[in-house]
Design goal:
This protein has a single domain (21-247), classed as UDP N-Acetylglucosamine Acyltransferase, domain 1. 19% of the residues lie in helices and 24% in strands. The protein has 4 helices and 20 strands. Strand 19 (190-193) and strand 20 (198-202) form a beta hairpin.
């Protein structure tokens, strides 16, 4: 019902990462520079310690967009991540994304008035949130005057290709199954699935949650750990062998 989410994402289509350590470090520095240079100015706030994979496939448009610290955004060429505010008036509407949030390839957030996303929220591939129908049923030149914000509380997990419609609030720790369409509020500590989404399971609220906040508890130490891991794994990779894999890969690569 719910697809898995992995923190580790392959950088190439190869079975093995054949890049020399310095090549990967150069790529990571460029990736970070790109996000800082092009995506930070598109936000009112972009928190520290972000990890934005392939940031050239992240599209951020509109005013009043804030993103918290330690966000992970994974974008792909044919599954870009799109975050957009199209307010009723200039400089109106907002999207607020909390700390430690994960946005997977193909996620789309479209706000007419307000989308609020709490801390530690995880969104799988192809998730779509929209707080408006954008056109009336009878008058298709205007939006409905009623404001219908979307609110996701802390630790919500949205499964693959799920859709959250206007006016929905999802309670803390709740999970939305793959391909579900959520049209009504979801209480805390439940799993919902289907179209329209209905409660299929209640979660034990007494069990302590381990969230992305714990994973990113010390970002500097975490970065140091992964740098050491890269150095160890990529240590024996030669530059010319890596070039060969780009031109003529084999089934050992």
């Amino acid at each position: 019902m719910i697809t898995g989410l992995s923190i580790v994402v392959r950088f190439t289509a190869m079975r093995q990462d054949r890049r020399p350590y310095w090549v990967k470090k150069t790529y990571l520095k460029f990736r970070y520079w790109y996000a800082e240079h092009f995506l930070r100015p598109a936000c009112d706030e972009l928190g520290a310690h972000h990890t934005i994979m392939k940031p050239w496939y992240v599209d951020i448009n509109g005013p009043n967009i804030t993103i918290g610290k330690c966000v992970t955004i994974v974008a792909e060429k044919y599954s870009p991540v799109k975050i957009g505010v199209w307010g009723r008036q200039p400089d109106s509407g907002k999207i607020s994304i909390g700390d430690y949030v994960l946005l997977s390839p193909g996620v789309r957030l479209s706000a007419s008035d307000e989308i609020i996303i709490g801390n530690n929220v995880m969104m799988a591939n192809g998730v779509y949130l929209s707080d408006s129908d954008w056109h009336g049923v009878y008058d298709r030149t205007e939006r409905d005057e009623k404001v219908t914000p979307i609110i996701l509380h802390d630790n919500v997990w949205l499964g693959d290709s799920s859709i959250v419609l206007k006016g929905v609030t999802i309670g803390e720790n709740s999970i939305v199954g793959a391909n579900a369409v959520v049209s009504k509020d979801v209480p805390a500590n439940v799993v919902v699935a289907g179209n329209p989404a209905k409660v299929v399971k209640h979660l034990d609220s007494s069990i302590e949650r381990v969230t992305r906040r714990e994973y990113f508890a010390n970002p500097a130490e975490q970065a140091k750990y992964f740098d050491g891991l890269d150095r160890m794994v990529l240590e024996g990779n030669g530059f010319f062998n890596w070039l060969r894999t780009l031109i003529k890969p084999n089934n050992k690569d």
